[in-house]
Amino acid sequence: MSESVVTLFESLVGAEPPHDASVLFDTACVMGGSIAGLLAARVLSDRAREVVIVEPDDISAETGTRSGVPQDQQVHTLLPAGRLWIERWLPGVTQEAQERGASLCGPDQTLVTYDGVRMAPDGVDHHLLALGRPLLEALVRSRVTALPNVSVLRGQATGLRYADGAVVGVRVTGPGAGDQERAEEVIAADFVVDAMGRSSRLSNWLKQDGYDQPRLERLEAPVNYATAFFERTEKIAELEAGTVLQQFTPRYPSGGVSIAAANAIEGQQWLVMLTGFGDHRPGRTIEEFRARCAELPAIFKEATSGAITRDVRTYRQAESRRRHFAEAGRLPARLVSAGDAVASFNPVYGQGMSSAALHASCLASYLGSGADLDAPATEFFRLQQVVVDAAWAVSAGGDAARLDAERGTEVPEETRQQRQAMAQIIGAMLVDADVARAFNYVSFMLRHPGTLADPELLKKAVKAVKAVESVESVESGAAGAGASAK
Ligand SMILES: Cc1cc2nc3c(=O)[nH]c(=O)nc-3n(C[C@H](O)[C@H](O)[C@H](O)COP(=O)(O)OP(=O)(O)OC[C@H]3O[C@@H](n4cnc5c(N)ncnc54)[C@H](O)[C@@H]3O)c2cc1C
Asked: Does residue 484 surpass a pLDDT of 50?
């Protein structure tokens, strides 16, 4: 793993807003007003006289679910990389979230286990933000739309306009008076961001308009979510853990639940989530949901014991996807894509919103680099590839390993060795603080996964796993001797 990729990743994670940003555009247009679009708009507000966010949903209401973000009723934990980035560029989000009842959970209030074994404390003061997704989006949105040069246009982007190989406008339709669709209009723009989420049609537009269609890579990762909300009597400070994440292998009697999470969120509620992979469905009714929770460690029974404040909602995602813009030979200038529109992963890894923040960081770095804006944004896509590769290595890497193991698929020797090394890291992080620290930095998206390939760390991991195995074999030998003596 090249040192420069590791360093570049860290510089994107730590990026600060510029002090004296020169204005580069008259109007920048962001298609999509969710997390990726809002964070891109924040970056563009330093570089454009006017930033217009085009969003089909009515986002004037403060919070609440909306059709453009169907996943917003499922668990959403903000990882440290995303939270720290948002806090630097939109200060005050964390404090306001806490004032509104969200939990900011440090190591003492974060409970992560694997088959019931708690991860070793890593000695680092990381914080995860547990809250409802609509609340987080509202806090980000209120700050972005309060910027004097940012506005929201309710409408749906339907295509692009070009001149001389560059994007010069966005075609928009939207609701007019009564039930009538407004006639299509073109928003003139000298820079455009696609932040239309996982089902963005940008690739199809590019193909229709004679440009290259970025290659779409898909990885089967069928995951079934079920989430319900329950009344919580304890205040956050009284809780042993405000965010709980427990992963189960098929060895653990979890009734097909692969991951269970409970977050203490606003409104004195527990948001409880169960997931199953493949054909395992965590249950649609509240009776099924509570029955599954009763089979899990006690915290899930407790969290689901209060009155239901929101019934079970399910969500299925069949695959992880990424679009390889960096490989596309012919793209128009003044156009980039960000967030789930570029890469959307198996959500159980909680990477999506932090990835969107790092894509915004790539945009800031690109716009500050003096790049030729009349050429395709190759440098932006190169930076973004570093971020997407990193997130993909963690989530898709884990999913591919699981699928191949289930199906007995032969893999190249190099892949086999990488997976074996990762298995040692995962085994060791339950008992070794250094390995847990290195793993957490990567899974919280603060460091590049290449840092886990450090030979010293791997040696340590192998040693720690061997030590656990020898204790286990002594214990099982003693138990066996005890049993045969009875
Ligand atoms: C079940 C589940 C759980 C998740 N949990 C987590 C988690 O714990 N932590 C985490 O960080 N991430 C999580 N994610 C991922 C996270 O939801 C996404 O990564 C994040 O929302 C991406 O933001 P986005 O702005 O790119 O896209 P989206 O949030 O999907 O928003 C796309 C926006 O584009 C708009 N749009 C669509 N079409 C058009 C158009 N034609 N014109 C204009 N606008 C348009 C939509 O209305 C919407 O507002 C989870 C995802 C799922 C599915």
From this structure: no
Candidate from 39, 74, 185, 277 with most ligand 1 atoms within 8 A of CB, to mutate: 74
Structural domain includes residue 199? yes
Residue 476 has a pLDDT of 61
Overall average pLDDT of the 341-358 stretch? 96
CA–CA distance, 16 with 198 (Å, rounded to integer): 27
User: Do 212 and 341 belong to one domain?
Assistant: yes
Among residues 31, 75, 17, the alpha carbon closest in space to that of 170 is found at 31
* Per-residue pLDDT, 474: 60
Least confident of 47-56, 173-182, 293-302, 337-346: 173-182
The count of domains in the chain is 2
**Which H helix or E strand runs over 288?**
helix 286-294
Is 261 a domain residue? no
Domain that holds residue 330: 17-68+134-218+323-396
- In ligand 1, the atom with minimum distance to the C-alpha of 338 is 26
**465 and 354 together in one domain:** no
- Full-prediction pTM beyond 0.90? yes
Percent of the chain scoring above 90 in pLDDT: 76
Query: Which residue among 42, 54, 135, 340 is best mutated to probe the pocket of ligand 1, counting the most ligand atoms within 8 A of its Cβ?
Result: 340
